[in-house]
């Protein structure tokens, strides 16, 4: 039997988009849409997300997963603004964006949803988050170079296989 997670969470920086939203070396918020409908920052630079993200969110939402954001950025406002401008807000049931260990973010998901840690899966690019989440039993898939359909499929397989071993 294929065991699936109930809730799938994503990090933001270097997972859904290729920059840190709170670092001026990358971007200068606030963001807006220009006349061509492109998302830009105050330097009029185009703000891009990793290519496959919109279709990944659409796919997982369609497949019935509960989707969430867990981000430790120091600029939650800018992050939320991008979620809105990219039109991704509609996919996420839970959004937790603030500094500190991601254990806090996941405890929030658990208390709000009633879903157990063992039913959650996270895609994230930072090892320190994996170390933290290991301690509460949330599986994390390491992201390198942005999330892709291939990685999502591999992550879901890994989640299912971990259950078979139990
Ligand atoms: Mg990150």
Can you put this structure into words, describing what you see?
This is Magnesium-dependent phosphatase 1-like 2. GO terms for molecular function: acid phosphatase activity. It is a single chain. With 166 residues, this protein is α/β, with parallel strands linked by helices. It has a single domain, classed as Rossmann fold. 34% of the residues lie in helices and 17% in strands. It is built from 5 helices and 7 strands. It has helices spanning 53-62, 76-85, 102-113, 127-134, 149-164, and strands at residues 7-10, 32-33, 39-40, 66-71, 92-97, 120-124, 139-142. The strands form 2 sheets. Strands 5-4-1-6-7 form a 5-stranded parallel sheet, sandwiched between helices. Strands 2-3 form a two-stranded antiparallel ribbon. Strand 6 (120-124), helix 4 and strand 7 form a beta-alpha-beta unit. The two termini are 13 Å apart. It binds magnesium ion (MG).
| Largest sheet, spatial ordering of strands | 5-4-1-6-7
- What portion of the residues fall into strands of 2 or more residues? 15-25%
Radius of gyration: 16 Å
Helix-strand makeup class: alpha/beta
Main beta-sheet annotation = 5 strands, parallel
CATH architecture: 3-Layer(aba) Sandwich
Would you report the number of β strands?
A: 7
The whole-number mean of residue pLDDT values reads 97
At the fourth CATH level, what is the homologous superfamily?
A: HAD superfamily/HAD-like
The number of domains is 1
End-to-end gap: 13 Å
Uncertain segments of ≥5 residues (pLDDT<50)?
Answer: none
Which of globular, elongated, flat, extended, rod-shaped describes the shape?
globular
Ions, cofactors, ligands: which are bound?
magnesium ion
What is the level 1 CATH name? Alpha Beta
Helix content: 25-40%
Number of helices: 5
Protein name: Magnesium-dependent phosphatase 1-like 2
GO molecular function: acid phosphatase activity
Pfam families: Acid_PPase
